[in-house]
Amino acid sequence: MVGQQDFNPALLNDPGALENYSVKFEVRQPLFNPDMMMQRGALKNRLKSANEQSEGTKQFIQFRVRDNYYSLILHTRQLEVFRTALQTTGEHRRQYLSGSYPFNSKVPGCGCNDHRRTGRYYDRPAPWITDFL
Fold it and tell me: How far apart are CA 88 and CA 82, in angstroms?
């Protein structure tokens, strides 16, 4: 029971020595923690997802690099073909303007012999040739 003497200010401010005490140090660890197991599984899944996303990004970058490289090779070869065609067209133009173009040859794809005889096909250039003249 608690009485008036327990609230004496002199004893409360200057208590005597206490000799019947016990100290206890305790560490507790659970044997099984299902929440921790679920969090660990979720963390493993997130790590796996991040690794797969990273791998997919690497593969996509490799694909784009290869695609652009092969596109560059293709366009370089197309440019060579265009330069050769432009050089050939320039040579035909030079022959046409100098008069050394073969006027007596047959027009490709034409079945008549009229062009051989008269050379009318070569009297004036085709409309698309005037862009280069």
Answer: 10
By C-alpha distance, which of 97, 105, 104, 98 is closest to 125?
A: 97
120, 126 Cβ separation under 8 angstroms: no
From the list 132, 133, 131, 106, the residue with the least C-alpha distance to 121 is: 106
What gap in Å lies between CA 71 and CA 94, rounded to an integer? 34
Q: Tokens 């197309």 — which residue?
A: 78
- HEC string of 78-112 equals HHHHHHHHHHHHHHHHHHHHHCCCCCCCCCCCCCC
Name the pTM for this structure.
0.45
Q: Which of 81, 78, 121, 72 is nearest to 101 (CA)?
A: 121
Write the DSSP symbol of residue 46.
H
DSSP 8: -
Give the CA distances from residue 18 to residues 1, 11, 12, 21, in Å, rounded to whole numbers and listed in that order: 20, 13, 13, 7
Mean pLDDT on 86-95: 86
